[in-house]
Description:
28% helix, alpha/beta, Rossmann fold, 14 strands, single chain, 7-stranded mixed beta sheet, 305 residues
Amino acid sequence: MRAAAFASFGGPEVMNVMEFEDPQAGPGQVRVRVKTAGVQHYDCAVRGGWTPAYGITVKLPQIPGNEFAGIVDQVGEGVTGFSVGSEVLGFAMLKCYAEYVVVSPDQIVSKPRTMPWEVAGGLTGNGQGAHMALKAIGVAPGETILINGAAGSLGSIAVQLAKEWGAKTVIGTASEYNHDYVRSLRAIPITYEEGLAERIRAIAPDGVDAAFDTAGGEGLRAAVELVQDRNRICTFYAHDLIEELGLRSVRGERSAARLAELSELHARGKLHIHIRQTFPLDKADEAHRAIETRRGRGKIVLAID
């Protein structure tokens, strides 16, 4: 099979299309012919030499990618619920920029008929990340929530989930260019500049109940200043500041149940995924360059089939 991979650590230029053995579905597994795969900052970090936690091994040449969508084309013995031809989306660690992925059935869910392939391929990572983060900090009806980096793929999903779960006010930091987009998500946009905490206080004089950071910098420090309980602040970006600021690390397991919930929200029109750009497999290096600018809104996806 063809896959975008890297044989050495470095910048986006180390990404190349290579050939690998076709994986085969064993007992209790399915093989998916991948149509789209999402691109994440995680992928770029691994490509650059970062070693993931949780016992994940990077072996060169390494295929990146943790999220995918496609069509089941092999079903192993003992698998129920899916058959050849099933359209699915799912998750797997470091192997999704490829024509085929082999996974357990508990790593996939059925793709809603109305969900575009680009959305399906890019929903799992940021969708489940946002879901985990907001469950960790807690979002109760009537509360005020701060999302730092509200126009990005992760932040925009978090904004929508916070509103869906009853937050009265969601304040989202974003560049001025993205303010109309943040408003369309039913959040109040605010720029990142110095003095952010004071400007947030003007919007929310009764305080901020919880915060989720996807961008670091002034936004995270403002959250620490504004949120009374630091257990209700989560960052998925500034990991180096967690100890300094007295925050807790938030970890969670991805699950088919959580993914199914997100898929249902999309099918009901309650969750919108903006696709910033789609790249072909042989332009994975350009996809990495685009996401590493940390500018722009929404999701970057690879089209594989």
